[in-house]
Design goal:
14 helices; eight-stranded mixed sheet; four-stranded mixed sheet; Rossmann fold; Glutaredoxin
Length: 495
């Protein structure tokens, strides 16, 4: 036995002294150390949100609005996606939820494959594929696939981020904010989803954004409800009475928020009230040859596409180059500052320099338009304004400072079912929703555009791109490898 042990020791000594063993052991040790370093660095970096989105549409990047909303969450948010693996939806939603989870440790994400874990899905009372459940406390909001993906297979829109944010706001807000639309003056009907001129599509969008929408007849009610978050006067076709205007004026003076949409050639009754802020809704119809659009009939004089002015409402539309057009609009003039009031007023959009405001409808039938010297209002003309003023509302012995805000636009048709909804021009609705969110200081809710899911394939490559790809993969890369091998061979041969 002793001889055997000595023999083994001798063999091991010889093995350790061999050159191949030394180099081999060193190589193995280096591999182990390298892998260990990679593992350690990966564990450290996993605690940081380090990534770079190289997709053309940045479809894996969260908007600043989303990041802000998620980071400000104080309670635990639970998001459960119930999917079918391999359908595409699970990948897009899964990546989105990973990014959301990285923003706040209070966000808990779970992905359930309905085909393999029906019991877990049943606990959420979900039996369909691709449903995302958002929960906070005892509040719950379900997001369905139709709310997330729309369009054709080759050009789909992914609205997952928008849907998730709205669901988070829905379950985290203490109470819903109520938007009242006035009625009784042939305003746009908020329940009409069938006809072109209804506001039904707009109402549904506001409901999806967690607002409550109601109608308000000022003559019947005799007051503006205390729970009114925003008052909307949406395209009245005849004048408000003096009593109704006084109610709206008093509401604004006490820190109220409103959107006023006034169509051309309609006496609204609000002229004196608007003069309190040095604004005047002109009795004209805007013609803008630069943006001539035959939207209705062949002789249609054209619908202005505005030139945006810098403001929080218009910023997303400017940065994303989103067009909005107004089927028929009137201009809003700045009459200077009203003495005794401290307020700000900013233009939201204007027409081109070659536009004008026409006061004679009969002349619209003749094309081209009247000579410049015959025009009543020459461009550029303001289409909309945002006004803000601090006011004081008595509350017992204390005085609470509140900010009055209103948005005034010389058109109400831009937000109807078509073109804004049925026609598919989302920018028109973005303008309205952005205005609502600015009024109530919810900049985080200002419209998040859907990402385009681009279906890229090799078939879309040009002949030049095919040639470059062939040269790099079939010729250049193998030549580099061969050249490297030859250099190593020659170097060893010299030794």
């Amino acid at each position: 036995m002793k001889k055997l042990i000595n023999k083994i020791k001798t063999s091991l000594k010889k093995l350790f002294k061999k050159r191949n063993f030394k180099y081999g052991s060193a190589a193995i040790l280096m591999v182990v150390i390298t892998l260990g370093c990679f593992w350690f660095v990966t564990k450290i970096l996993s605690n940081f949100n380090l990534q770079y989105d190289v997709t053309a549409s940045k479809q894996y990047s969260l908007s600043p609005q989303t990041v802000k909303i998620i980071k400000e969450l104080k309670e635990e948010l639970r998001i459960t996606a119930i999917v079918k693996k391999g359908m595409g939806y699970d990948r897009y939603m899964g990546e989105l939820l990973k990014d959301v989870q990285k923003q706040n440790s209070k966000v808990k994400v779970k992905i359930i494959d309905l085909d393999f874990d029906r019991a877990a899905a049943a606990a959420y009372k979900v039996n369909d594929y691709n449903v995302t459940v958002v929960e906070m406390g005892d509040k719950r909001k379900d997001i369905f696939e139709k709310d997330v993906v729309s369009g054709y297979e080759s050009n789909r829109e992914f609205k997952g981020e928008q849907a998730i944010v709205n669901a988070v706001l829905s379950v985290s807000e203490a109470k819903k904010k109520i938007i009242y639309f006035t009625e009784g003056h042939k305003e746009k009907n908020i329940d009409d989803v069938q006809n072109v001129a209804g506001y039904g599509f707009l109402k549904q969008l506001l409901l999806n954004d967690n607002y409550e929408v109601k109608s308000l007849n000022l003559l019947k009610e005799g007051k503006i409800p205390a729970d009114c978050t925003v008052l909307v006067v949406g395209g009245p076709q005849f004048s408000f009475s003096g009593k109704e205007v006084d109610l709206v004026s008093s509401y604004l003076d006490n820190g109220g928020k409103a959107i006023l949409l006034f169509d051309p050639f309609v006496a609204t009754g609000f002229d004196n009230m608007l003069m309190n802020w040095g604004l005047k809704a002109n009795n004209d119809f805007i013609i803008d040859p630069k943006y001539y659009l035959n939207m209705v009939v062949r002789s249609d004089p054209g619908a202005p596409i505005p030139e945006w002015q810098a403001h929080q409402i218009t910023a997303p539309l400017i940065s994303n180059k989103i067009p909005v057009f107004f089927p028929g609009s009137r201009s809003i003039s700045d009459m200077g500052r009203k003495p005794g009031r401290s307020y700000s007023k900013e233009k939201l959009m204007t027409t081109s320099s070659i536009s004008w405001g026409e006061t004679n409808l009969e002349s619209l039938r003749v094309q081209p338009g009247p000579k410049k010297e015959d025009r009543d209002f020459s461009g550029p003309l303001a289409l909309g304004w945002a006004v803000a003023e601090y006011s004081k509302e008595p509350k017992g012995e204390n005085q609470e400072t509140r900010e009055m805000k209103f948005v005034l636009i010389g058109d109400s048709d831009f937000a109807v079912n078509a073109p804004a909804g049925i026609g598919g021009l989302q920018g028109n609705l973005d303008l309205f929703v952005n205005s609502i969110n600015w009024l109530i200081d919810e900049g985080g809710k200002i419209s998040i555009r859907p990402k385009i899911i681009e279906m890229r394939s090799l078939q879309s490559l040009t002949s030049t791109q095919w040639t470059i790809m062939f040269l790099m993969t079939i010729i250049v890369t193998p030549l580099i490898v061969i050249a490297g091998g030859v250099l190593v061979f020659l170097k060893r041969r010299k030794k």
